[in-house]
Specification:
Helices cover about 50% and strands about 15% of the residues. The protein is of the alpha/beta class. The protein folds into 3 domains: about 1-170, no CATH class; about 200-235, no CATH class; about 260-375, 3-Layer(aba) Sandwich (Glutaredoxin). Helix 1 (about 1-25) crosses helix 5 and helix 2 packs across helix 3. The protein is flat.
């Protein structure tokens, strides 16, 4: 029984730590997913709660996982685990049956699952959750109650602080298709021989006031009394979809300039501003300074937005920007970078660097690759600090258990 409880605790804990962590480092993505659910269920008035809920969900998940692995406050944690899993198992069953959104977002962008895959994942995880709950009285504390609450609170606050950091900067780990080092053109290419989408043709005909669907094989072609209504396509099998499939830059005149931008042999700075009307004025002023410096170094600079034409026109009237503004699909532009605004550096279609505008260096240099490498080194330092935090925490928990024995 002891080994079974340990295995159940470690398994559920690992799932919750991973799920909480990948959400915590991408709160923008979690907030977008909450927004999709609010829209699907007709509760758009809750959209303002998307960010707070994103931070709360990842923090509670992460704390629950840490508590399970460290065996901290197990009676409380077993209740929290069971309630959490029961709620989300029922919710994911509803999502699987109704399919309001295609991806549950339970593991952020790190692991993509369909709604049915998420439901069966929850069925697997709820088994150890029930087992832990039924045996919750068999767990003993590793130290005094107050110290355990401090440990639990530390895990909660750590995840929340990590989320806040990533909101004001960028996710410290990028799981999306637009990672540094990716060539956009290559990621948009469909390999030769890759499977294509397969559709069934559905013929809708009417007879005597009754509409019926047919396929070309079972339609009663010898009955001329049927009147055609419409022809539909039903997706039977999804074919190969390249990692990047919606990267398209359009000028104000409606010209597609994607190929020209990706073919540029020099550096190109793409300022990504999904919502121009919500971009901080201070950051947009800094972006304007970046543009002025880029001209001195002959570095191309483009602003990409998914804002509507009226918002773009108002922004231009209020700010009179010197840089050109182009448009892009909203989903694509929010996938590229989790900032408003952010900066992406590319050369010959390869992503060389990404920054939140507030982190971009004040002065540009001809060697922009070196600037990008220094920023990546800074991110690696942050990851090292996080790894050190986990390592010291693990040593502390082991020492507590040793001293208790």
């Amino acid at each position: 029984m002891k080994y079974l409880l340990t295995a159940a605790r470690m398994f559920a804990g690992a799932v919750f730590i991973f799920s909480g962590f990948v959400k915590a480092i991408d709160p923008h993505g979690s907030a977008i997913k909450f927004g999709e659910y609010f829209e699907a269920f007709g509760i758009d008035f809750l959209s303002s709660l998307a960010f707070p809920l994103a931070i709360l969900l990842s923090s509670v998940e992460f704390m629950t996982g840490i508590n399970l692995v460290a065996r901290v406050r197990m009676k409380f944690t077993s209740w929290l685990l069971l309630v959490f899993m029961s709620f989300f198992t029922i919710l994911t069953l509803i999502l699987a049956l109704t399919n309001p959104v295609s991806d549950c977002g339970c593991f952020g962008d790190a692991v993509k699952l369909t709604n049915w895959q998420t439901f069966w994942k929850n069925i697997i995880v709820i088994i150890p959750a029930i087992f832990i709950f039924l045996n919750r009285k068999n767990f003993t504390g590793i130290t005094r109650p107050l110290s355990e609450w401090v440990l639990a609170g530390t895990g909660l606050l750590f995840a929340a602080a990590l989320s806040v950091y990533c909101i004001f900067h960028l996710p410290i780990i990028d799981f999306r298709p637009y990672k540094v080092g990716v060539n956009i053109q290559e990621s948009m290419t469909v390999p030769e021989g890759a499977p294509s989408d397969i559709y069934d043709i559905i013929l809708v005909y009417e007879k005597d006031g009754v509409m019926q669907e047919f396929t070309p094989l079972n339609f009663p072609w010898n009955d001329s009394l049927w009147t055609w209504v419409e022809t539909k396509q039903k997706l039977v099998s999804k074919g190969y979809e390249p990692p990047i499939h919606d990267f398209s830059i359009t000028s104000a005149e409606g010209e597609d300039v994607t190929g020209t931008v990706l073919a540029n042999t020099g550096y190109t700075l793409l300022m990504i501003a999904p919502d121009l009307d919500r971009s901080a004025a201070r950051l947009m002023e800094k972006a304007a300074n970046i543009y002025e410096h880029s001209k001195e170094l002959n570095i191309d600079f483009l602003c990409l937005t998914s804002s509507t034409g009226s918002i773009i026109n108002k922004f231009m009237e209020d700010n009179d920007p010197s840089y050109p503004i182009y448009t892009m699909d909203e989903t694509a532009i929010k996938t590229i970078i989790r900032a408003n605004p952010g900066i992406m550096l590319i050369r010959e279609g390869t992503i060389t660097g990404k920054w939140n505008v507030r982190d971009f260096p004040d002065e540009l240099k001809a060697d922009m690759a070196g600037v990008a490498l220094r920023y990546q080194s800074h991110v690696r330092d942050i990851l090292s600090v996080i790894a050190l935090f986990f390592g010291l925490s693990l040593i502390y928990v082991i020492l507590l258990r040793f001293m208790k024995r």
